[in-house]
Amino acid sequence: CLCMEIFLEILKAIVFGVVEGISEWLPISSTGHMIILGQFFGFEKTQGAGFYDFFLVIIQLGAILAVVLSFFKELWPFGKKKSRKEKTEIWQTWLKILIASIPAGVLGIIFSDIMDQYLFNYLTVSITLIVYGLAFLVIEFFLRRRALEIKKRYHLNKEIDTHFSDDVSEEALTNYPVFRFHSIKEISIQYAMIIGLAQCLALIPGTSRSGVTICAALLLSIDRKTSAKFSFYLSIPAMVGGSLIKGVLYGVKIAKGDASPITGFQIALILIAMAIAFVVSLFVIKFFMKMLRTKTFNAFGVYRIALGIVLLILFFTVNKGQLEMTSQCINSFESLIPQYSCFLCRGQL
After folding, report:
1. Do 207 and 201 touch, CB atoms closer than 8 A?
2. What sign for the dihedral angle of Cα 74, 80, 82, 84?
3. pTM
4. Which of 82, 104, 284, 297 is a Cys-bridge partner for 199, taking CB atoms 3.0 to 4.6 Å apart?
5. Secondary structure in 3-state letters for the chain
6. Nearest by Cα to 14 from 243, 270, 263
């Protein structure tokens, strides 16, 4: 019935918003999770391929608004209360952000269609999930060895308590001797460019933009908290630019007749997903930054590897090696909500 179809599409938009808000900021690949959801839900088939591609990108604006709000004081260079030095440092931060954003921006424009056509499937996602999951574990292994060597060298035999109050020093929270750099202002233009080049790898679905930039920053001896923060900053031009490009391309397709105009219902789906992504992102960003005060990225590495293995099993068993989800998998979602629950069509509401 019609109202059941509407309810299912709204429910899908809510789920997309939740997953976007969680996966965009954790190093687990938001694009990879969106591809998996899209193929499982069959959203592309119900709303059209053109709208689906546009939807996946445009709802990121909700997540971006959350990161801008979370770090507004650190990114806003104006205000009477800010000193000249503070304003200068903020402008320098924006310069680093823009320089680091150029490589991925250029390659994204050139290879966008090729990526969409050949790599946006869950075989690619599963492989990259595993590869960069292993990368996190390897990096954290060597960081742990280095920390143990430093503790031994300086006779630091006592383990730091994992419960901290808000006034604990940065040295204690980030294993200070392990890393050389502990703030955004210490990141040089050259290091920002290296991190920006690493961000190009995130054009491959499943890589995770935040994951690959954090890995690059850790290898440059930038502490975990600063690595994550700079990665969040880089998301602003990357995601805003990506949304604008996708919007223009979708508009061109509509003008040429290759895609249907956006309906009022589809606009509602976008707004719902964006709002959910915004709210969820606020909590996830706060949680993630607090977690990095005492934890490593090992848990994310394990999660990526486990999810990648599960997807490979699905690829070679349930899906028989097909890059697109079978109709049996797609229909399984609709079967979760029985027809008799449609109160509107039964005239009970």
Report:
1. yes
2. positive
3. 0.83
4. 104
5. CHHHHHHHHHHHHHHHHHHHHHHCCCCCCHHHHHHHHHHHHCHHHHHCHHHHHHHHHHCHHHHHHHHHHHCHHHHCCCCCCCCHHHHHHHHHHHHHHHHHHHHHHHHHHHHHHHHHHHCCCHHHHHHHHHHHHHHHHHHHHHHHHHHHHHHHHCCCCCCCCCCCCCCCCHHHHCCHHHCCECCHHHCCHHHHHHHHHHHHHHHCCCCCHHHHHHHHHHHCCECHHHHHHHHHHHHHHHHHHHHHHHHHHHHHHHHHCCCCCCCHHHHHHHHHHHHHHHHHHHHHHHHHHHHCCCCCCHHHHHHHHHHHHHHHHHHHCCCCCCCCCCHHHHHHHHCCCCHHHCCCCCCCC
6. 270
Tens digits of per-residue pLDDT, 277-334? 999 999 999 999 999 888 889 999 999 999 999 888 888 887 666 666 544 554 544 5
Cα R_g (the chain), whole angstroms: 22
Measured CA to CA, the distance from residue 288 to residue 26 in angstroms comes to 7
Residue type, 157: N
Six-digit token string for 250: 């979708």
Which tens digit of pLDDT belongs to each residue from 1-52?
678 888 889 999 999 999 999 999 999 988 888 878 887 787 878 888 788 8
